């Protein structure tokens, strides 16, 4: 347009009016053409929708199988832990109470998996009520699980570092009170999931996810930081303090019985952080995507893949606590032998097969002679 104006400046004066009229028409036409070009330029530069079809196919192919395996193994393992604790241990100590509640927390995870498994294959067909409840149960299980592992670390700290004080503090009654507090905190922290989760149609696909009112980014930041702080940062600080003091005390005072209990609960703690820390890191990186720090489509897809893999890794943790109890808890193995001896189904199957099994176990009463001052769980 500047070039046209320069040309008109050098035209003779008698033709000026005619040329002005002509230039006005030309300018209008040029403006329309320029606007059209600008529109297409902006359209080409605009961010295009990021296709996630490959992510959905990946989820539909692998997640249902993994969810099913975790559900079966976690349900069986944690149910056995609960049966052993209630039938044989009878919740005599604070540690027993925490172990029972930890197993219940793990069961909350696995009981929600059949719903998520079907969701990955098809779409959410269970309605808004179950969408809220299942999502809430899942998050309550996450929070309560890490809180009870944290309480078990504090319990070991009291038993070893504050042994005199622990004689009065580490009772089953106090364990029940602190467990109730933990469940209330976990339930309260999970309320946003219960409030904002909804089942709704999105692009001809029924989904189950949060619908935050007002500013979506603000709520997303809040929920992500809540999970990272309550589910990772605070427990990490508390457990690091407890175990550093425990190790310092045990260096000066060797006690094999206490050492075994510490190794078991330390293993539970390490396994938890190994299996859940990657998930916390991925949801934090996804927060950067929501806030606009990460804009690349391929990076977004990679984060979706990583979220699915790390979430499965975290869910596998629910199956591992019973395994830790079995391999590191001598009493737990003995109780399992007694349980299977008294259970009729395995014996009936073996008789039907023509096989006779003889159990060589100690009497049940011999397992209840533990010191009240140092009750070490399983």
UniProtKB/TrEMBL annotation:
InterPro entries: CCR1-9-like, Chemokine_CCR4, Chemokine_rcpt, GPCR_Rhodpsn, GPCR_Rhodpsn_7TM. The keyword Translocase does not apply. It is found in: Cell membrane. It is a multi-pass membrane protein. Keywords: Cell membrane, G-protein coupled receptor, Membrane, Receptor, Transducer, Transmembrane, Transmembrane helix. One of its GO terms (molecular function) is C-C chemokine binding. CDD domains: 7tmA_Chemokine_R. The chain crosses the membrane at residues 65-86, 98-121, 133-151, 172-191, 221-243, 264-285, 305-328. One of its GO terms (cellular component) is external side of plasma membrane. Its main location: membrane. Residues 77-325 form the G-protein coupled receptors family 1 profile domain. GO terms for biological process: calcium-mediated signaling; cell chemotaxis; immune response; inflammatory response; positive regulation of cytosolic calcium ion concentration. Belongs to the G-protein coupled receptor 1 family. PANTHER family: C-C CHEMOKINE RECEPTOR TYPE 4, CELL ADHESION MOLECULE. This is C-C motif chemokine receptor 4. It comes from Athene cunicularia (Burrowing owl). The gene is CCR4.
